[in-house]
Structure to design on (569 residues):
């Protein structure tokens, strides 16, 4: 008798093969039968009319702190995610000396917009080295499986102290010690090494994380440790407009290590067609069996403007800042007063950098985000179109849109990947195996980005709801988020519905699958706020054969484990 049988579902196995009807049998957390009619079971799940897929594997998250207090890594598990990789972009909390804990928190707060008070309240520090951090994660209860990478910023500060923080060049002794720490972490089960070279990443307003200006020798020497140990992904985010300068050394590293090198690939407004050259370079590398990959979003990176978020056009208004910290009932009452509105709209504005000035003035790229959010809106729906139709200024339109829904409304600013005003280039990216789904940023950017719902969006938009261009099969969109993401990180025990694979499974009512508009909630430690996004359509999510979510509700089962590279969970 089987432990569990999922009966009568439409099985989409994650390989890209056509769907088939049949049963899934599970024993001891492992799939033991796929298709046909399975025998008797202690527990039966009726999946008639539903899709049955592998659980989603999200490889770009920042749950490094949240994983120490939240077993569900909310809201990822509500969107069918059963495995995550964290420690991306060179950010993380180990290794760390006791006197640098607060500093690491400040870096994470600045770069990834995770409130420092939340991290200070939520993290119980019981580690110093990276292996000790992994052991600490292993001890915490968890609903899903987690994997982590060792971050460059923490390694550099641990070894070099203030010299590393101030971007001094490494000495041979520094580099020797840093390599030893990366080697130790990989042997303890880290899934990779990550770094950041982008000027978008800052903390304390104008400081860059350690590693941003690392020499080519430092980067390549640390990266080669992965090849020496024999596993791991080298993950990097850089300045998107200058990626063509980075690709030669990344290509050489991938060639030497014979291991994946993964960088963030985005379309930017200053160079909207640069992606074409980069994509061509990736295809040339893969033709030579060089594992160089672009990590891509399935939709634009969406900044969300609202009175509850930390980013909107009025954060540079002194008149607004006077009331910004008032309790919400008092603040919304003041915002409704005509004289306050007038002062905010017409008063002086603080000087800021060019990027923020551009963002807050790009009214052609600001859209209302409805309860049924559209992440590929038409130009006719932009604030600029409303300005022209109504004869009003952009700030007037934005102010009044943000006042909708009793002041809870959100506006959508597609920062990256929307230079063409559509997603046709993403349609091209998603057709090739030189890119991999990434950049959901779960756990990060709590106050102005909510792209953690990416897995649900991939199915709803790309296989069903898109009206402005080509779509994909459900089978293709499942594969992008299961087998493909598992394979790049060497998670060969999961990602498909095949006999012998781990029973991480989603059961989905495809027709009812939908996203709601993001909303701000105040449920983090110390009363911290974060954006979350509800969805419908997940009937059940299983990890190792145990149901962790059923009809959008957590069951209380916590079968998740810390993953160690090269080992099964």
């Amino acid at each position: 008798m089987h432990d569990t049988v999922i009966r009568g579902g439409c099985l989409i196995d994650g390989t890209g093969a056509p769907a088939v009807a049949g049963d899934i049998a599970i024993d001891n957390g492992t799939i033991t039968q796929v298709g046909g009619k399975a025998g008797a079971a202690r527990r039966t799940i009726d999946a008639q009319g539903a899709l049955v897929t592998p659980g989603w594997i999200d490889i770009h998250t920042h749950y490094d702190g949240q994983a120490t207090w939240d077993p569900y890594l909310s809201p990822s598990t509500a969107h069918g995610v059963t495995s995550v990789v964290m420690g991306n972009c060179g950010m993380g909390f180990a290794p760390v000396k006791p006197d640098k804990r607060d500093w690491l928190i400040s870096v994470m707060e600045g770069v990834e917009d995770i409130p420092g008070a939340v991290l200070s309240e939520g993290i119980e520090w019981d580690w110093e080295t990276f292996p000790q951090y992994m052991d600490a994660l292993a001890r915490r209860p968890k609903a899903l499986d987690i994997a982590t990478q060792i971050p460059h910023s923490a390694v550099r500060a641990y070894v070099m102290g203030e010299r590393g923080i101030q971007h001094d060049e490494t000495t041979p002794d520094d580099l020797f010690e840093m390599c030893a720490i990366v080697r130790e972490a990989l042997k303890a089960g880290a899934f990779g090494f990550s770094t950041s070279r982008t000027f978008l990443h800052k903390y304390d307003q104008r400081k860059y994380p350690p590693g941003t200006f690392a020499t080519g020798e430092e980067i390549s020497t640390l990266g080669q440790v992965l090849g020496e140990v024999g596993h791991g992904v080298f993950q990097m985010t850089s300045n998107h407009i200058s990626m063509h300068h980075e690709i030669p050394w990344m290509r050489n590293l991938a060639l030497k290590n014979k291991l994946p090198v993964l960088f963030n690939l985005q379309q930017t407004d200053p160079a909207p067609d640069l992606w074409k050259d980069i994509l061509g370079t990736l295809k040339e590398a893969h033709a030579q069996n060089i594992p160089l990959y672009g990590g891509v979003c399935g939709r634009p990176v969406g900044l969300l403007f609202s009175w509850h978020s930390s980013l909107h056009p009025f954060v540079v208004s002194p008149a607004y800042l006077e009331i910004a910290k008032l309790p919400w009932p008092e603040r919304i009452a003041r915002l409704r007063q005509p004289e306050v509105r007038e002062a905010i709209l017409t008063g002086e504005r603080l000087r800021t950098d060019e990027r923020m000035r551009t963002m807050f003035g790009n009214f052609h790229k600001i859209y209302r985000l409805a309860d049924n959010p559209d992440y590929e809106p038409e130009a006719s729906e932009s604030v600029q179109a409303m300005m022209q139709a109504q004869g009003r200024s952009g700030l007037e339109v934005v102010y009044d849109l943000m006042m909708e829904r009793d002041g809870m409304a959100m506006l959508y600013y597609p920062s990256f990947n929307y230079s063409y005003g559509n997603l046709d280039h993403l349609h091209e990216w998603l057709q090739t195996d030189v890119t991999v789904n990434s950049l959901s940023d779960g756990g990060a950017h709590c106050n102005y980005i909510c792209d953690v719902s990416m897995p649900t969006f991939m199915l709803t938009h790309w296989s069903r709801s898109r009206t402005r261009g080509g779509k994909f099969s459900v089978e293709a969109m499942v594969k992008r988020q299961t087998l493909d993401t598992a394979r790049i990180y060497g998670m060969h025990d999961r990602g498909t519905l095949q006999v012998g694979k781990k029973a991480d499974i989603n059961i989905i009512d495809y027709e009812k699958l939908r996203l709601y508009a993001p909303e701000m909630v105040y449920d983090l430690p110390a009363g911290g706020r974060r954006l979350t996004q509800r969805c419908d359509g997940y009937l059940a999510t299983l990890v190792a054969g145990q149901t962790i979510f059923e009809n959008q509700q957590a069951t209380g089962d916590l079968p998740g484990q810390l993953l160690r590279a090269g080992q099964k969970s």
Q: What stands out?
A: The longest helix spans residues 172-188. The longest strand covers residues 2-11. The chain has a mean pLDDT of 96. Residues 93 and 265 are 25 Å apart (CA to CA).
